[in-house]
Amino acid sequence: MGTGTRPVLVYDGDCGFCATSVRCAEKYVRPRCDVVAWQFADLDALGVTQHRAEHELLWIAPGGTVYGGAQAVAKLLLSARGGWAVPGAVLTLPPVRWVAHGLYRMVADNRHRMPGGTAACALPAGRRPGSGADAEVDAEAGRPNGGR
To answer: Which residue, 27, 9, 14, is CA-closest to 122?
Structure first.
């Protein structure tokens, strides 16, 4: 998977809210892009860091330009057929763009509280249940593995 001829939408596959939101977008909006959880993406080939992929939804255009957060949502909407391009275009315009950024950050920072979210959504990727780093983190904390 690269940035060939189709855009790529990268989301957090460990977050229930994020995964549910992307599935709804695929079903109802039907964006014209490849969709991949960052945990299964070749982030180096896409030109993004794990830190950024953990932080926000990403839209990587075929030329390699990366859009994050609310602007990734705007690009997703703009790529869809039908009337979805109208709200997508509106999201790119100031001052709507600035408000959308703030709302996106508020939702992203509280995704563990959103419908479908879990407490694991609030943790950095390396500290989520089932991640390879769990055992190390727990051992460093002096707790047995799984002692959250």
So the answer is: 14
Tokens of 38: 């960052």
**What pLDDT digit, counting tens, does each position of 88-145 carry?**
999 999 999 999 999 999 999 888 888 766 666 665 656 554 554 433 333 333 333 3
The structure's pTM equals: 0.78
Whether 128 contacts 122, CB under 8 Å: no
Average pLDDT of the chain, as a whole number = 83
Quote the CA–CA distance of 77 and 90 in Å, as a whole number. 10
Q: Is the dihedral of CA 38, 27, 109, 47 positive or negative?
A: positive
Q: Which amino acid is at 30?
A: R
What residues form DSSP beta bridges with 9?
35, 59
Instruction: Give the β-pairing of 34-37 and 58-60.
Output: unpaired
Strand runs labelled E in 23-109: 34-37, 58-60, 66-68
What's the gap between Cα 55 and its chain centre? 7
In whole angstroms, give the CA distance from residue 48 to residue 110. Answer: 23
